[in-house]
Amino acid sequence: MVMIKIFFCMLMFAGLSLAQDAASAQKAARELSGAVKTGDMMWMVEKMYPALKNKLAHNLNGGMKELEDTYRKMGETIKQQGIKLEAFDVMSPVGEYSVKGNTEKLVVLPTRTVVSVKNPQTGQTVRVEKKGFLYAIAKIGTDAWSFIDGTTINLNDLRNLIYDVPLNIVQPPVSQKILP
Asked: How is residue 15 annotated by DSSP?
């Protein structure tokens, strides 16, 4: 009987821990949304999942400096073209997993982005809504989250970065539409 009580206590603690991880990941992603809204691309590079950041930098001739320069220029281009981020919403997590041999936690967070841009030929503003998701990853026992945009990476590439991503990982649907 004592073993059963201990087992249920462990289950409740594990559930509480996952709920805390999910809330922590969602909070960190909302902080990321602030950087996205202001065009702070360097903050985005800083919060990128380290293995992905290293892989991207390795693929560039100039390494990490070129990666940072690329993102800085991207931010400048967005501002010059008058692209405005109206919304970057982070929804409740749809999946939580232990990965990397139970040394990291991975949380799947659906997102909704609304961007407006002026059409240079007509002068009309076009608004686009994109639904996607983020992978939030942190070492077990920390709240130091880093991120991967789930809409820009396929599962095989994700598994090259995180070898034990579950086969049944939940991936929210991705869509894009022009708003009235």
From this structure: H
| Burial class of residue 85 in the structure, from the number of CB atoms within 10 Å of its CB (0-12 exposed, 13-18 middle, 19+ buried) | middle
Sign of CA dihedral 6, 9, 14, 20: negative
Distance CA 81, CA 76 (A): 9
C-alpha angle with apex 111: 16 to 68, nearest 5 degrees?
Answer: 105
- Asked if residue 103 lies in contact with residue 93, where contact means CB atoms within 8 angstroms, the answer is no
The pTM of the full predicted model, rounded to 2 decimals, is 0.83
| Structure tokens that stand for 170 in this block | 């939940």
The maximal CA–CA distance of the chain, rounded, in angstroms, is 75
Residues 6+ apart with CB under 8 A from 54: none
Cα 6 to Cα 74: distance, rounded to the nearest angstrom: 53
Distances (CA, A) of 172 to 1, 93, 99, 112, 175: 41, 10, 19, 11, 10
32-82 pLDDT tens trace: 777 777 778 888 889 999 999 999 999 988 899 998 998 889 888 888 888
pLDDT tens figures, 126-155: 999 999 999 999 999 999 999 999 999 999
